């Protein structure tokens, strides 16, 4: 059984968005190309994403607004040389040495578009402790118990050896108002490699005395045992969020905590080729960077919550929802998805009923309904005041101006 072709609105493989859409974003953005290089996009330019490891196209990157609390992720302000003997660490990066020395190298450089600096620790530690590069000072970032924070850095070992070194890692930790460490922490190990590798983690702060937050890259050393190792570090990021988003970088030469604005993508429904207000079908292939919260890959609506047709994720549970005049006509539960995995949803509707399928599973169906008036198609969010942003990618979006059969819904979702 063949399903008649629909109209392609998004093609991630071809980096193509139908010209009926208008796009808006009030800040630059960044994402990774197929070769793993980081690309920075000007305001409103659409970022397309690839899997950095496999080179597979992921599609159109859509994210909510996010702030990077690290003021110098570009590693600016550094001077090559040994710190204290002419070398200067990047602005805001706090380096501990504990009897060793730290040499700055490759200041002001990038690797595959990622701003980096090389840090060489050498000498004999005067304590059994960790040597660390903290993203900020321990009192810089205000936080509170109950908040969830995420962090990421890009790391490679580019020199020296692991002799007398153990447990290289990313560490996230809540702190007191004066920067003292608390007993709770999250650690993410770094697997030794010379390839620049992102490592990230998330922590929900639970201790009542928490008033600050920080993250760092560190490794363990032993008192009296000499070390000599060089790590490349770059694109440091700290966000108040349940998962870390794509790199958020300040304007080059202007270190500061930067915010990436959300990308808004909309089209008049009447601009969709063959648009049919009475019935239709949408097929979306997408991926969520994290499944927390309420996220909407696409929505047809009137700018309010009262009239809408949409596919949404509620903490990873995928639903097809139709609301008319404030009354829910159908909310079809389709199953669950996981972060970082592609999924496909086909959803079809008319006054006679609705059907939807996730990844080709048996269609969830609903009976007769009143089709709402939905003059605008929105990608990655809903409402004229955008809410429920997708944090992830849309690789494919296809529109058919008709209600397909339930069997065809399953076939479209399996494709």
Essential attributes:
415 residues, mainly beta, nine-stranded antiparallel β-sheet, seven-stranded antiparallel β-sheet, 32 strands
- Number of discrete helical segments: 1
Oligomeric organization of the protein chains: single chain
Poorly predicted segments: none
Distance between the termini: 13 Å
The helix content, as a percent range, equals under 10%
- What structural class should be given to the helix and strand makeup? mainly beta
- Please describe the biggest sheet, giving its number of strands, its sense, and whether it closes into a barrel: 9 strands, antiparallel
Compact summary:
This protein is an all-beta fold. It is 2% helix and 48% strand. The model has no long low-confidence stretch (mean pLDDT 95).
Give a structural overview:
The structure is a single chain. This protein is mostly beta strands and 415 residues long. The protein has one helix at residues 406-414, and strands spanning 7-11, 16-17, 22-24, 29-32, 38-41, 48-50, 57-62, 66-68, 81-82, 94-95, 101-111, 114-123, 129-134, 141-142, 148-160, 166-175, 186-189, 197-204, 212-221, 227-239, 258-260, 264-268, 280-288, 294-301, 308-314, 317-324, 327-336, 343-350, 353-358, 364-366, 376-379, 392-400. The strands form 6 sheets. Strands 1, 2, 6, 7, 23, 28, 29, 30 and 32 form a 9-stranded antiparallel β-sheet that branches. The longest helix is centred in the last third of the chain and has 9 residues, at 406-414. The model has no long low-confidence stretch (mean pLDDT 95).
């Amino acid at each position: 059984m063949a399903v008649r072709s629909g109209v392609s609105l998004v093609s991630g493989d071809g980096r193509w968005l139908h010209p009926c859409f208008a796009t808006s974003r009030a800040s630059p953005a960044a994402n990774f190309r197929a070769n793993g290089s980081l690309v920075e996009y000007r305001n409103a330019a659409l970022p397309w994403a690839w899997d950095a490891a496999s080179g597979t196209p992921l599609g159109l990157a859509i994210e909510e607004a996010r702030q990077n609390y690290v003021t110098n992720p570009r590693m600016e302000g550094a001077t090559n040389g040994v710190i204290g003997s002419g070398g200067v660490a990047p602005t805001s990066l706090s380096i501990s040495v504990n009897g060793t020395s730290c040499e700055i190298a490759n200041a002001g450089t990038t690797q595959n578009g990622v701003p980096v600096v090389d840090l060489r620790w050498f000498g004999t530690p005067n304590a059994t402790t960790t040597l660390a590069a903290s993203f900020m000072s321990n009192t810089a970032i205000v936080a509170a118990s109950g908040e969830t924070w995420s962090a990421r850095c890009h790391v490679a070992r580019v020199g020296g050896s692991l002799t007398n070194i153990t447990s290289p890692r990313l560490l996230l930790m809540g702190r007191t108002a004066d920067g003292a460490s608390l007993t709770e922490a999250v650690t993410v190990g770094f697997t030794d490699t010379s390839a620049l590798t992102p490592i990230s983690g998330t922590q929900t702060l639970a201790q009542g005395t928490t008033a600050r937050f920080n993250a760092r890259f560190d490794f363990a050393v032993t008192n009296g045992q000499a070390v000599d190792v060089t790590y490349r570090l770059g694109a440091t990021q700290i966000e108040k969020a349940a998962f870390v988003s794509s790199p958020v970088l300040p304007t080059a030469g202007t270190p500061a905590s930067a915010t990436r604005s959300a990308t808004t993508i909309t089209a008049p429904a009447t601009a969709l080729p063959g648009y049919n207000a009475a019935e239709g079908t949408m097929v979306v292939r997408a991926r969520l960077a994290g499944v927390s919260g309420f996220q909407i890959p696409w929505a047809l609506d009137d700018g309010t919550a009262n009239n809408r047709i949409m596919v949404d994720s509620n903490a990873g549970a995928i639903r097809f929802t139709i609301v008319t005049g404030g009354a829910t006509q159908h909310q079809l539960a389709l199953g669950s998805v996981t972060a970082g995995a592609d999924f496909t949803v086909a959803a079809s509707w008319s006054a006679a009923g609705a059907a939807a399928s996730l990844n080709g599973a048996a269609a969830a169906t609903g009976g007769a309904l009143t089709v709402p008036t939905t003059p605008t198609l929105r990608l990655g969010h809903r409402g004229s005041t955008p809410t429920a942003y997708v944090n992830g990618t849309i690789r494919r979006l296809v529109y058919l101006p008709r209600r397909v059969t339930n069997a065809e819904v399953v076939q479209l979702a399996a494709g």
